[in-house]
Design a protein that fits this description.
Distance between the termini: 45 Å
InterPro entries: P-loop_NTPase (IPR027417)
CATH architecture of the largest domain: 3-Layer(aba) Sandwich
CATH superfamily of the largest domain: P-loop containing nucleotide triphosphate hydrolases
Number of strands: 11
CATH topology of the largest domain: Rossmann fold
Protein name: D-glycerate 3-kinase, chloroplastic
Number of domains: 2
CATH class of the largest domain: Alpha Beta
Helix content: 25-40%
Organism: Eruca vesicaria subsp. sativa
Number of helices: 15
Largest sheet: 5 strands, parallel
Length: 447
């Protein structure tokens, strides 16, 4: 394989002739050999990849699995994997997601050239400033990232359905490439020898639209490319059960503050402490008790913060912090505007005035996932709860889903238009990636 510029991948078929003008390197030793499953990426412990960011030994990569994450699965959108179904497993107080897929209808993608054309047809390529030449020059990375994500979600990369293929190559990988560019831009502002704080990327998106799964995939790609990352969610910073009780008592009759979720139900000083501690993790070492494991099932579903001894450690040096939440970037509005949406929202709006200093000001770059109609959240949440019940897990009934989502819709109706028109609070427009998605959670081409 000396001199080869592409990695081995199932996308490479027999007798690919790349001399016809495809803008990625041609190598006869790769393109004219019969595909051998023993040489498939991640299948041999002796395989070495010549890649500046890639895992260089598959045996090292295997040590990364399983990856554990602390997010709540209830809002996770994985319908693209197979028939709206997913299998969720729990390991102690941390959870890992295992997704199984054996698609009935597959896509015939037999060569690198086919995949190149598919990547270039994606809706995000132009938006993130990638040209066909860029894709061609880095096709080996796209192949590697696709193989890694197939491994993460337990997909057969030779048998991808169209939704699976689009989700990986039109969505997750383009966003990852954009995140890498943002990290490079961030690092360029520091001199050699400086302690470079991790870049904080905010992911603002309505519940159920798949942002948690997106962040999960990105975190995995960062880990497999030897860039240490940390993921946090606004859900990590809910008030304790005692704090929630005080919030309810102080706002009797306000359904928007009866349960956790809206502005006012978060421990903002604790979130500041966490983010600032993570930002200082620029060298080797660990920070114990820095991420919160929020136990959403405690107190009959009202939730409570897990004991500090159960919180996972974060290892440095961190390169990036992925911070996700349904209301990140929301801006307070004039009182008359929010009262016209829902009078109960006036208190929430007042609470929101403190959130910029606690969250948004720490975020350097943004991914804003946009939806056309907030009512999509009903359907997405219902899908998630049905999947939970089918998997034998406790799930909300249809009526409970309606009640739950109704407590968030006023905020969506009030704040999403401003977020979409102006961007998040204090954000640099050049560092905001806005992604419009359809009702199936897939990116769509801009009009």
């Amino acid at each position: 394989m000396a001199g080869a510029s592409l990695i081995w991948s199932p996308w490479q078929s027999t007798n690919i002739n790349n001399k016809g003008g495809y803008p990625f390197p041609y190598n006869s030793s790769i393109c004219n050999n019969t595909f051998n499953f023993k040489r498939r990426f991640l299948s041999s412990s002796s395989s070495k990849l010549k890649h500046d960011h890639a895992v260089t030994d598959s045996s090292a990569s295997s040590k990364l699995s399983p990856l554990h994450t602390h997010f709540s699965f209830s809002g996770c959108g994985c319908s693209w994997i197979q028939d709206n179904s997913m299998v969720l497993e729990s390991n102690g107080l941390t959870s890992s997601k295992t997704c199984s897929a054996l698609p009935a209808k597959t896509v015939d993608v037999s060569s690198v050239s086919d995949l190149f054309e598919f990547i270039c047809s994606g809706p995000l390529v132009d938006k993130i400033g990638i040209t066909p030449e860029n894709v061609g020059q880095s096709i080996d990375k796209w192949l590697l990232y696709g193989s890694q994500l197939c491994r993460l979600f337990q997909l057969n990369e030779l048998m991808l359905t169209i939704p699976q293929k689009a989700r990986l190559y039109h969505y997750y990988i383009p966003v990852f490439v954009w995140c890498q560019d943002q990290i490079a831009l961030h690092n360029s502002k520091f001199s050699d020898g400086d302690d470079v704080p991790p870049l904080v990327i905010g992911f603002s998106a309505p519940q159920g639209c798949g942002k948690t799964t997106l962040v999960f995939a990105l975190d995995y790609l960062f880990k497999t490319t030897k860039m240490k990352s940390a993921t946090i969610s606004i859900d990590d910073f809910y008030l304790t059960a005692q704090g929630q009780a005080k919030l309810r008592e102080g706002n009797p009759g306000n359904a928007l503050l009866e349960y956790r979720g809206n502005a006012g139900s978060h421990d903002l000083p604790f979130s500041v402490e966490t983010i600032e501690a993570l930002a200082k993790l620029t060298k080797e070492g660990k920070l114990p008790s820095i991420q919160v494991l929020f136990l959403s099932s405690a107190y009959s579903g009202r939730g409570d913060r897990g004991d500090a001894t159960t919180w996972p450690e974060v290892e440095g040096p961190l390169k990036v912090i992925l911070f996700e939440g349904w209301m990140l970037g929301f801006k307070p509005l004039p009182a008359q505007v929010v009262k016209a949406v829902d009078p109960q929202l006036e208190t929430v709006n007042k609470n929101l005035e403190e959130y910029y200093e606690a969250w948004d000001k720490y975020i350097n770059a943004w991914v804003v996932i946009k939806i056309k109609d907030p009512s999509y959240v009903y359907r997405w949440r219902l899908q998630a709860e049905i999947a939970m019940r089918q998997a034998g897990k406790p799930g909300m009934s249809d009526d409970e889903v309606n009640d739950f989502v109704s407590r968030y819709l006023p905020a969506y109706k009030a704040y999403l238009p401003t977020l979409y028109a102006e961007g998040p609070s204090g954000s640099d427009p050049d560092r905001v990636l806005a992604i419009d998605i359809d009702e199936e959670r897939n990116p769509i081409l801009a009009n």
